[in-house]
UniProtKB/TrEMBL annotation:
NCBIfam families according to UniProt: mthyl_TIGR00027 (TIGR00027)
Entry's family note: Belongs to the UPF0677 family.
Entry protein name: S-adenosyl-L-methionine-dependent methyltransferase
The keyword Transferase is assigned to this record: yes
Record keywords, A-Z: Methyltransferase, S-adenosyl-L-methionine, Transferase
Length: 310
């Protein structure tokens, strides 16, 4: 159960979701036709213990297996993994475009085990701020202690429901420079009012030319045999690994909150969206119908602040 001031270590509560995402990135990295390579993901997951290594091995087996061996109508390479892969590609491309446009200040909100500060190419002079809960960042910093980031990386340990802008300022954030913000896999873990406050703070700190990228879900999903099978498979895998993680208990509903597309458009930002199915198709990863139906509930969004509005 969530509360307004809950906190967690990497293997606990919302912290564990960062491990789940990293396990998928490790699995994708092993594919010969990988759409991105994250050489840090496996190390981070392994450092969290044998249960997480088990999950990662299962992900690797699933991503290379292709069709569902159990015939449950959903490929073992699940729609969840497909969505995570699509969004990684989308946000990697987002940062490449932001760098090409001259942006040299980046804020990765809820960075978790995101290794972009280590694995992407950044123009010299770029600063990447990473914000997450203290214990999550402590874990990542200790596992990657002997690695050199590819950029001036500044890890800021603070809860995003608290006064994180102050911490950003104290660590050298420049509000006069355009910023590329990222909120990947975050919004679902915030209640609607905390999301609104987050957007207010981001807009207040964003010089003209700033951008933000994020992912959202849409629409109430009908339960279906494929969804139930996916949920069961996830439960089975977590139980085998001895891990307690119930995603549904950690999420706040999409329903009832402001749609980020509307929020940014109403505040004068130019909004564009991408969809995971098209993105994966464009990258040669055609999805089966059952996965497409699930992926169509996810939206990838970028918004750019023009000169006139804040
Ligand atoms: C699903 S993971 C995504 C991590 C990373 N963005 C990625 O995609 O690999 C969710 C992350 O959000 C962080 N998070 C959620 N709520 C937060 C909050 N209120 N303050 C700081 N971090 C938060 C968690 O600690 C976790 O690292």
């Amino acid at each position: 159960m969530r509360s307004d001031d809950d906190s967690w270590d990497i293997t606990e509560s919302v912290g564990a979701t960062a491990l789940g995402v990293a396990a998928m990135r490790a699995a994708e990295t092993r594919r010969p036709d990988a759409l991105f390579r994250d050489p840090y993901a496996a190390r981070l997951v392994e450092a969290a213990g044998s249960g997480w290594s088990h999950i990662m091995r299962a992900q690797v087996a699933a991503t290379s297996a292709g069709a569902d061996p159990a015939g449950e109508g959903e490929p073992a390479y699940s729609s969840l993994a497909a969505m995570l892969i699509a969004r990684t590609v989308y946000f990697d491309e987002y940062f490449a475009a932001a760098s090409a446009a001259g942006i040299r200040q980046v804020v990765i909100l809820a960075s978790g085990l995101d290794a972009r500060a280590y694995r992407l190419e950044w123009p010299s002079g770029t600063v990447v701020f990473e914000i997450d809960q203290p214990k999550v960042l402590e874990f990542k910093n200790s596992v990657l202690a002997d690695e050199q980031p590819a950029v001036d990386r500044r890890a800021i340990a603070v809860d995003l429901r608290q006064d994180w802008p102050k911490e950003l300022w104290d660590n050298g954030f420049d509000p006069t420079a355009p910023t590329a913000w990222l909120a990947e896999g975050l919004l679902r873990y915030l209640p609607g009012e905390a999301q609104d406050r987050l957007f207010d703070d981001i807009a207040a700190l964003s010089a003209p030319g700033s951008r933000i990228a994020l992912n959202i879900g849409r629409g109430r999903r009908e339960d279906s045999p494929a969804r139930r099978a996916m949920r069961e498979r996830r439960k089975r895998l977590l139980a085998e690994a001895g891990i307690t993680l119930n995603l549904e208990e950690l999420w706040y509903p999409w329903e009832g909150r402001t749609d980020p597309r509307d929020w940014f458009a109403a505040h004068g930002w130019t909004v564009t969206t991408g969809d995971p199915v098209s993105l994966l198709t464009d990258h040669g990863r055609e999805q089966p119908d059952v996965a497409r139906a699930e992926l169509n509930h996810h939206i990838l969004m970028t918004a750019t602040r023009g000169d006139e509005n804040r």
